[in-house]
Design goal:
CATH class of the largest domain: Alpha Beta
Helix content: 10-25%
Number of helices: 10
CATH superfamily of the largest domain: Ribulose bisphosphate carboxylase, large subunit, C-terminal domain
Oligomer: single chain
Shape: globular
Low-confidence stretches: none
Mean pLDDT: 90
CATH topology of the largest domain: TIM Barrel
Length: 418
């Protein structure tokens, strides 16, 4: 059984570092335009590409970089897309594409490309055709069942990538027009405002009016919120319980969704799937490990978990009962690192918002640091030993390497999550 690539989302340098530290084999990211997260503000700049490449390659085990260019391209945008391909090509291993015009530009310049799930590839015939056009990898449609994935992998002349974790779209392969119709923001251009995630209000319509234009029926103004769930909001995908079957199917790359998520989400999900894959190969993948890893990914942002469409399509079980995150922990902003004493391994933190106390679980986030998890085992202010540092004060505590300006968060366990 081959080891699949763990492919992590990277929305900024903090997320990138978190993915690298957690054991990702590859990362995917955008440059602000022509990708499916163009609206979210979680993109790098073109000027960042050398630094991204340097961080990924200057490691004991180099990490691959894939640039998302998977939005649709309009007629007057080809020159700008072509310029982006030429600028990025020296710094990335492949482009993720879904528009045939972008495919033609990648072919023109000899740029390796992967076919995005946005192209809705759901059979081996389509995979073979895409391979004949130069694709080195195909990301299958999320509608494929596991049995179909296995058959496609067996017949494919190129690598197959599949989503294993994260948000799922109610539309086929994410090609939805709801956001565009309601708000003028196209999901196919990376601008989706996710109206599907909301609850809906149903209002009665009376087609009959009296002479004055008033409704005839007394209940004409009746309205109610659709219950018991958000009717077109799909549950999040979690594959930790069948990672072994995904590996057996021959999938080359396990893709984690979440370029709009924070660094804690990236670190936690990548770490859990890294452990699951390693356990399968080591023969230590057990129900107990699956439960532990599932509990761990539940600590970060998620909706209700489901198995996606890997075991059948469609079904009412795929829809969420809540529009809110069910994360079992929440981060509260404490403040910032104002100094770090390298030899002593001590961080000095200015407490701006949430107080911290001995025994608290905290995280330090930074573009170079990534995510550092710490249990506070002691607090000091000069020679004073503290039990608690309140808002408006400062304190020092032992901490792995972090940097001035890094953000500090208190990790609170939620009692109200399901």
């Amino acid at each position: 059984m081959k080891r699949p690539e763990i492919l992590a989302p990277a929305g900024d340098f903090t997320c990138l570092q978190a993915a690298l530290d957690a054991g990702a084999d590859a990362v995917y990211f955008g440059l602000g335009t022509f990708n499916m997260r163009a609206r979210s503000g979680v993109n790098f700049r073109e000027a960042d590409l050398p630094a991204v490449a340097r961080r990924c390659t200057e490691r004991e085990r180099p990490v691959r970089r894939y640039l998302a260019l998977n939005a649709i391209m309009f007629e007057d945008e080809a020159d700008e897309v072509e310029r982006t391909i030429l600028a990025a090509k020296p710094f990335v291993d492949a482009f993720i594409v879904s528009d045939w015009g972008v495919v033609s530009l990648c072919r023109k310049h000899g740029a390796p490309f992967h076919v995005s799930t946005q192209m809705s590839t759901s059979n081996s015939g389509a995979v073979r055709f895409l391979a004949s056009q130069g694709a080195s990898r195909v990301v299958l449609a999320r509608e494929c069942t596991l049995a179909e994935v296995k058959r496609i992998c067996a017949a494919s002349p190129v690598e197959i990538e599949c989503f294993v974790h994260g948000a799922q779209c109610v539309a086929e392969s994410g090609r939805c027009f709801m956001s565009h119709d309601v708000f003028g923001k196209s999901a196919c251009r990376g601008e989706c405002v996710q109206p599907c995630r909301r609850r809906f209000l149903v209002k009665a319509v009376d087609l009959y009016e009296d002479a004055d234009g008033n409704p005839v029926h007394a209940d004409a103004k009746a309205q109610y919120v659709v219950e018991t769930h958000t009717v077109i909001s799909a549950k999040d995908l979690c594959s930790l319980g069948f990672v072994d079957r995904l590996m057996d199917a021959g999938i080359a790359s396990f893709k984690i969704e979440g370029r709009a998520r924070n660094a804690n989400y990236v670190m936690t999900t990548v770490r859990c799937y890294r452990r699951a894959v390693d356990a399968v190969l080591a023969g230590t993948y057990t129900p107990e490990l699956v439960r532990a890893l599932t509990d761990e990914v539940k600590t970060v942002f998620h909706r209700e978990f489901a198995e996606g469409l890997y075991f059948g399509r469609p079904g009412e079980r795929q829809f969420a009962d809540s529009e809110d995150s069910l994360a079992t922990t929440v981060k509260r902003h404490v403040g910032i690192v104002v100094d770090y004493f390298l030899k002593a391994g001590i961080a000095q933190v200015k407490v701006q918002d949430h107080a911290i106390a001995v025994g608290d679980d905290i995280q330090v986030h930074g573009p170079t640091t990534g995510v550092v998890e710490v249990k506070v085992d002691g607090l000091r202010r000069d020679d004073e030993v503290l039990e608690r540092a309140e808002k408006g004060t400062w304190a020092t505590f032992r901490c792995p390497r972090c940097r001035v300006g890094d953000k500090v968060f208190f990790v609170e366990r939620r009692a109200d999550c399901r």
